[in-house]
Structure formats: structure tokens, C-alpha cells
Write a structure and sequence with these properties.
The complex is a heterodimer of chains A (172) and B (294). Helices cover 22% and strands 22% of the residues of chain A. Chain A is an alpha/beta fold. Chain A folds into two domains: 75 residues, Fe-S cluster assembly (FSCA) (GMP Synthetase, Chain A, domain 3), CATH 3.30.300; 62 residues, no CATH class. In chain A, a hairpin with a 7-residue loop joins strand 5 and strand 6. The longest helix of chain A has 15 residues. The radius of gyration of chain A is 18 Å and the shape is elongated. With 294 residues, chain B is mostly helical. In chain B, helix 6 packs across helix 8. Chain B starts with a helix and ends in a 6-residue tail after the last helix.
């Protein structure tokens, strides 16, 4: 077991923090999602900085609790979890590995986020959205069935080729 | 379930005394760890009042959207409106927490949300309106999110770094809300004669409350560089609404603005009759059981 008194506590702390799964997307970690922003240590004190995906995302408090729990168990005496709001989280921060894990779990990863949101709606019709490939069969022939899903970060789609419904992490 | 997944779920059911409050789960200060200091030369009282205004808009409108739950025509729209309400509630929590920091009176977001009276709320009256039908919901969401997006777009460069961060984050959410609402307004407006008529009537019903969104207020005037002048937002909002209304084959209503009461409106704490009922529903449990936990 790695401990705070080991040779390189900051590396140990980073590894532990990076391995914390997202409570709503447990197939990916907070590092995969780009939620984990910084880990620093000072003796047996560790400071972890995380950022919310959406303003109201209830997972953040649970992630903070999980971080405190795991780092305390690993021997850190004091665990401080901080929130960073700026710069705002973007789905572009999801790592290539994270995208692979999402796809494997049947969730279509996000494409590139459009930036910044202009004064005129750019996405008023479905045809203007970039196609979302089916995570099961890879077909680009998919239809969005709902703009929102079971969590703040997802929308619902259906594949017109293999007919399977699937979730898609929204571009933000 | 893997060990990692188990740990995540275990933490959800962990029982501790400090963060299981009756009105949510895992409530901690949403600004935890963020530098609370105010920018030099900023009027702290005005900043508190300003964050309260914007926080109240989100809190009150979020509650109105929550009242639609179980009443929407389809499960997909139920999910959509619940998510939009959640985003706005998140924005409200951040803004009320910033207001609490700036006022420095030891109150927190919950005290501001649940223990203020009607005349102390500073939301615009559009936020408290009760939607008569789904067309009114879509129209009001379009106007509200287009206006708030224009506002947050400017506040993203506010001299208050916390307000700027909240706005930059919220703007991305609002852009999605606006597009969702726009699609419904277009679908209904450019739909059947019946849906077109209902959508046009809905716009006419809520239009008297639109003018208030762009009216100057003394709090904003006291915060140069920090707040955004509401009058400056009108052109941008009009552009968006014109694009949507044209695609929806709808006419822009030209009804007179709703009267102010002795010159006062939502930003002054003067609200419509509907607001008292909304607030009673929002606050009654917290007030009846102020120390409740679950």
C-alpha cells in the first residue's frame, strides 16, 4: 500500500486521486473526465482540486467524499478538497483513454465542443449537429431521441443501423 | 461490481452528521476552496445584492420548472426540464453562496433560499410566472435563457473573478437550454394550426414581462466593471428571438409591459400574486423543520 510517508507522496496521492471513479459514470475516473485539476502535498497534508462538469452536478460532493476517504485510508493525515470553477470544464478535457472506456461501455463520447456560444443559435436544427457515431456498430446513421438524459452530461440517441439506443456525452 | 465502483456507491450511503441536510444530499459549500476575497474598490453590499438578484432568478425559475415534473407530455421532456432545473439550481447555489460571502453576515445559501420573505427576493417577475401550458413553458424558457445567456456572456469578464467564473460556466449550460427551447418554439410555431395558435398566444401572454429584463436598476449601476447593464442586452436577445420567431413563423407580440407598482418591480422586491404561493411551497418544509436531517 502506498502511504503518505513513502518516498514520493505527491505521486502516490496523484495515483490514488486519479483512480477515483465518477459515481454516475463509474467506467471512467475523475482523471479520465478531466475533473481532477491538481494534486499537491505538504508532508501528510494533501490538497486536491476538482472542477464540476455542470453547475448543479450532484456527483461533485460524492467525488470529494470518495477522495477524502481513499487518501485518508492511504495514510494522509489531512485531505483538503478544493473546487475550481475557472476555467469552466469542457467535454474536450475527456482524455483519449476516457473516450475509449465510454465507448466500450456503450456511451458515445463527445465530439469537439463549439466555442464560444454565439448570440445566434447555431444548433436550431438537427441537421446542423455533427453526427454521433454509434458506440456499438460505429454507424454514423444515428438520431437524437432526447436532448437530455439520466445525468446532466448526457443525451439519448438511437442507431438507425443496429437499432440500439445509446447515451451520448454532450459537447460542452 | 468492481471494488472501485463499490467504493463510489458506498460513499453515497455514508452517514455523517455534517453534510446530510434535509433539502439535498451531500450539501457542502459550492464555493469551498475558492478565494472569497472581493476585488479592490468593489461595493460589497452592492455585489451581495447583485448576486442575490441573479441567484434568485435561477432559484425561482428552477422551482417553477420543477413544478412541471410528472406533468409533461413525454418522458423525454420531463428529463430535459429536470436537467435544466438542476443546472439553474446549481447556478443559484453558487450565486447565493457568493452573495453570502459578499454580505459577510454569517448567512449561507440555505438561509438565503429558505428564510427570506417575499419582498426580500430580487428575481425578475418573468422567473416567477406560472406556465399555463407547454407552449408557455417553451416560450418562457426561450426568452429567459436567451436573456440570461446574453447577461452571462458579459459577466464572464466581470471584475469579480468568482462571478466571472460562475457566469462562464453557466453560459455553456444556458446555450444548451436556449437551443432546446428554440427547437420547441419552432416545432410548435411551424406545426399545425392549433400548435401555431397556442404558441403565438403563449408569447402574447408572457410578453408583458419581457421589458422588465432590460430595465436599469441601482444595484447594477453601483457596480461598474462588475455588473452588466441590462439595457445593453436587448439587441442581442432581440436578434436571437427574431431568428427563432421567423423560423417558427410567429409574430413578435407588441403588448404593453406589465405595470410596475409605485415604480417598483421584481428587482425591488415587488412581485406578482403567483410568487407567494411558489415561495410557500419552496420554503414551508425548511421552515417547519429547520434542523431536519435525513
Amino acid at each position: 500500500m502506498v502511504t503518505a510517508s513513502g518516498p514520493d507522496p505527491v505521486t502516490a496521492a496523484r495515483e490514488i486521486a486519479a483512480a477515483v471513479p465518477d459515481p454516475e459514470l463509474p467506467m471512467v475516473t475523475v482523471a479520465d473526465l478531466g475533473i481532477l485539476r491538481d494534486v499537491s502535498t505538504d508532508g501528510d497534508r494533501v490538497v486536491v482540486t476538482i472542477t464540476p462538469t455542470y453547475s448543479g452536478c450532484p456527483a461533485l460532493a460524492e467525488i470529494a467524499r470518495d477522495l477524502r476517504h481513499r487518501l485518508t485510508q492511504a495514510g494522509f493525515g489531512e485531505v483538503v478538497v478544493r473546487t475550481a470553477l475557472a476555467p469552466p470544464w469542457s467535454s474536450d478535457w475527456i482524455t483519449a483513454e476516457g473516450r475509449g472506456k465510454l465507448r466500450q461501455a456503450g456511451i458515445a463520447p463527445p465530439g469537439a465542443a463549439a466555442r464560444p456560444p454565439g448570440p445566434v443559435p447555431l444548433t436550431l436544427t438537427a441537421t446542423r449537429r455533427a453526427p454521433v457515431a454509434c458506440p456499438r456498430c460505429g454507424s454514423a446513421s444515428t438520431t437524437r431521441t432526447a436532448a437530455f438524459g439520466a445525468t446532466a452530461c448526457k443525451a439519448l440517441y438511437r442507431c438507425e443501423s443496429c437499432r440500439e439506443p445509446f447515451e451520448h456525452v454532450k459537447e460542452i | 461490481m468492481t471494488e472501485d465502483e463499490f467504493a463510489a456507491y458506498q460513499s453515497l450511503s455514508e452517514e455523517t452528521e455534517d453534510h446530510r441536510w434535509a433539502f439535498g444530499t451531500g450539501f457542502t459549500d459550492p464555493l469551498e476552496g475558492i478565494d472569497p476575497s472581493l476585488p479592490d474598490g468593489t461595493d460589497a453590499g452592492a455585489l451581495a445584492a447583485y448576486c442575490l438578484m441573479l441567484g434568485d432568478d435561477a432559484l425561482v425559475y428552477s422551482h417553477r420548472l420543477q413544478q412541471w415534473m410528472t406533468r409533461l407530455p413525454e418522458l423525454e421532456e420531463e428529463t430535459a426540464l429536470a436537467n435544466i432545473a438542476l443546472d439553474l439550481l446549481g447556478q443559484a447555489r453558487l450565486l447565493l453562496s457568493r452573495a453570502a460571502q459578499a454580505e459577510g453576515r454569517g448567512r449561507d445559501e440555505d438561509q438565503l433560499a429558505f428564510f427570506r420573505d417575499e419582498h426580500e427576493f430580487r428575481n425578475v417577475r418573468l422567473a416567477e410566472r406560472s406556465d399555463g401550458d407547454f407552449a408557455e413553458l417553451a416560450g418562457r424558457l426561450l426568452v429567459f435563457s436567451a436573456w440570461r445567456l446574453a447577461l452571462f456572456g458579459r459577466l464572464a469578464s466581470s471584475a469579480d473573478p468568482v462571478l466571472a467564473a460562475i457566469a462562464a460556466k453557466g453560459a455553456r449550460e444556458l446555450a444548451y437550454h436556449r437551443d432546446y427551447a428554440a427547437q420547441w418554439v419552432i416545432r410548435l410555431g411551424d406545426g399545425t394550426p392549433l400548435s401555431h395558435g397556442k404558441m403565438q398566444a403563449a408569447l402574447g401572454a408572457l410578453w408583458p414581462l419581457v421589458d422588465e429584463l432590460f430595465q436599469p436598476d441601482p444595484v447594477t449601476a453601483a457596480l461598474p466593471g462588475v455588473a452588466a447593464d441590462p439595457a445593453d442586452l436587448r439587441a442581442e436577445v432581440d436578434t436571437v428571438l427574431d431568428v427563432v420567431l421567423e423560423a417558427a413563423t410567429l409574430d413578435r407580440p407588441d403588448g404593453a409591459p406589465m405595470a410596475r407598482v409605485a415604480g417598483k418591480a421584481g428587482r425591488d422586491g415587488v412581485h406578482t400574486e403567483a410568487f407567494g404561493y411558489l415561495l410557500a411551497e419552496l420554503q414551508s418544509v425548511a421552515r417547519a423543520h429547520p434542523d431536519a436531517t435525513w
